Amino acid sequence: MFETCTARLALFYMSCGMRLYVSGGNSGIGKETAVALALRGARVIIACRDEEKARKAVKEIKARSHSMNVLHMEVDLANMRSIREFCKTFLQKEKRLDILINNAGVPSVLDWTDDNFSMCFGVNHLGHFLLTNLLLLRLKESSPSRVLNLTCSSYKYQKLDFKDLNYNLFPFFTYCRSKLANIYFTQELARMMEGKGVTAYAIHPGYVQSSWTCHYSILYRIFAQVVMFMFFISCEAGAQAVVYCAVSDEVLPHSGGYFADCRPAPLRAFARDSGVAKKLWEASERLVKLA
Question: Can you tell me which residues the record assigns to a coiled coil (predicted)?
Answer without folding.
Answer: none
